[in-house]
Design brief:
The structure holds two protein chains of two kinds.
Chain A: E1 15-18, E2 21-27, H1 32-49, E3 53-60, H2 66-81, E4 85-89, H3 93-102, E5 110-112, H4 115-126
Parallel strand pairs in A: 2-3, 3-4, 4-5
Antiparallel strand pairs in A: 1-2
Helix pairs in contact in A: 1-2
Chain B: E1 5-14, H1 17-34, H2 38-57, E2 62-70, E3 75-83, H3 91-95, H4 108-115, E4 118-124, E5 128-136
Antiparallel strand pairs in B: 1-2, 2-3, 3-5, 4-5
Helix pairs in contact in B: 1-2, 2-4
The chains are: A alpha/beta, B alpha+beta.
The structure holds adenosine-5'-triphosphate (ATP) and magnesium ion.
Pfam families (chain B): HATPase_c (PF02518)
Domain Histidine kinase/HSP90-like ATPase (chain B): 39-139
Protein name (chain B): Anti-sigma regulatory factor
C-alpha cells in the first residue's frame, strides 16, 4: 500500500521511547486506518514498556479534521485509563484556527507548543528528568 | 456584472480512506495554485475532508468534482461532492452541531459550512446527496452570510 507520488504513504507511524515517555511524530497525510492502528499501537506500547506519558508531535500535520481530532481525544482517554498522560505538541496555528471554527475544541486534551515542552511537562510530572536523553536542565 | 467562468480541474473518486487522502492532496494543490492564504487553504482542505468522508461513510462512496472559478475580480475553487446513497431526510437537523446518525461527533457538515464562503446541499431521500462548496481566495469580496 503506497499513496503514490506526492503523498507520504500515510500507513505507518513510528513510536519512539524516550525515558518513560512515548514520542509519536505524525507527518503529512495520515490515512484513517493508520490513525486507528496508531491508537492500538500506543495502548500496547504503554503497557508493554510501562510508559508514563505520550507526546504526539503534530507539527508536521497540515490538516486535522473531526476524524483525526477524535482519534487524538480517544488516545488521550485510553492513555489516561492506562495511568499515563497524553500531550499533543506543536499544532500549527492554521490548524488550531480551523479546529475552533469546525467546532472541535478538544477540551480534555493537554497541549504544548512543541515536543520539547511536552517532554518537559511529562517528565517533570513523573520525576524522570534524567532519563530523557538530550534534554537540558532549566532550558 | 461579470460572468463567473469555471474550468474543470479534476474529478476524483471517493471509494476508500486512501481516496480521502487524494482529495485532500488535490484540494491543497489547487488552492495553493489559485493563491489561497495558508489559513484559507487549511480551512478548505479540512471542509473537503469532512465532506468527502461523509460521501464515503454515509453516502456509500461517490465522487468530487473541482472547478476553478474566476469572476473577474477574484479566483476561487468550487467542490461538488456527489453520491447515490440514502440521501438526507432532514437537512436542518443534519447541519446541527452534534447531530449524528452514526458514531461521529456530528460536526462535519455544520463545521464544513462554517469553513467555506458558499455552501449548498441538494439531497433526495433514497436517491443521493450533492454538497457544493465555494471558497474565494483572500481579497475577494465575500458574499455575506445570508439569513436562511
Ligand atoms: N452524503 C451523505 N449522505 C447521507 N447522509 C449524510 C451525508 N452527509 C451527512 N449525512 C447525515 O448527516 C449527519 C451529520 O453529518 P456530520 O458530518 O455533521 O456528522 P457525522 O458524519 O455523523 O460525524 P462527524 O463528521 O463529526 O464524524 C450524518 O450523521 C448523516 O446522518
Ligand atoms: Mg461527517
Amino acid at each position: 500500500m503506497t499513496g503514490g507520488p506526492g503523498i507520504p504513504d500515510g500507513t505507518h507511524v513510528p513510536v519512539l521511547m524516550l525515558g518513560d515517555v512515548l514520542l509519536v511524530t505524525l507527518q503529512g497525510e495520515l490515512h484513517d486506518k493508520a490513525a486507528e492502528q496508531l491508537q492500538q499501537d500506543i495502548a500496547a506500547a504503554i503497557t508493554d514498556r510501562s510508559a508514563r506519558g505520550v507526546v504526539i508531535d503534530v507539527s508536521g500535520v497540515e490538516i486535522v479534521d473531526s476524524f483525526l481530532g477524535r482519534v487524538f481525544a480517544e488516545i488521550a482517554a485510553s492513555t489516561r485509563l492506562l495511568a499515563a498522560e497524553t500531550v499533543v505538541a506543536g499544532m500549527r496555528p492554521a490548524v488550531a484556527i480551523t479546529l475552533v471554527e469546525l467546532g472541535l475544541t478538544l477540551p480534555g486534551l493537554r497541549t504544548a507548543l512543541d515536543a520539547d515542552e511536552a517532554l518537559r511537562m511529562l517528565t517533570r510530572a513523573s520525576g524522570y528528568l534524567s532519563h530523557v536523553p538530550g534534554r537540558r536542565e532549566n532550558a | 456584472m461579470t460572468e463567473t467562468s469555471g474550468r474543470l480541474a479534476a474529478c476524483l473518486p471517493i471509494r476508500s480512506d486512501m481516496d480521502l487522502a487524494w482529495v485532500r492532496q488535490h484540494v491543497r494543490q489547487a488552492a495553493a495554485e489559485i493563491g489561497f492564504g495558508l489559513v484559507e487553504q487549511t480551512k478548505l482542505i479540512t471542509a473537503a475532508s469532512e465532506l468527502a468522508r461523509n460521501t464515503l461513510v454515509h453516502g456509500g462512496g461517490g465522487q468530487v468534482e473541482s472547478v476553478v472559478l474566476d469572476n473577474g475580480r477574484a479566483r476561487g475553487l468550487r467542490l461538488t461532492f456527489t453520491d447515490a446513497g440514502p440521501g438526507i431526510a432532514d437537512v436542518e437537523r443534519a447541519l446541527t452541531d452534534g447531530y449524528t446518525s452514526g458514531g461521529g461527533l456530528g460536526l462535519g457538515l455544520g463545521g464544513a459550512r462554517r469553513l467555506v464562503h458558499e455552501f449548498s446541499i441538494d439531497t433526495r431521500p433514497g436517491h443521493g446527496t450533492c454538497v457544493t462548496v465555494v471558497c474565494w481566495a483572500a481579497g475577494a469580496p465575500r458574499p455575506r452570510k445570508e439569513a436562511r
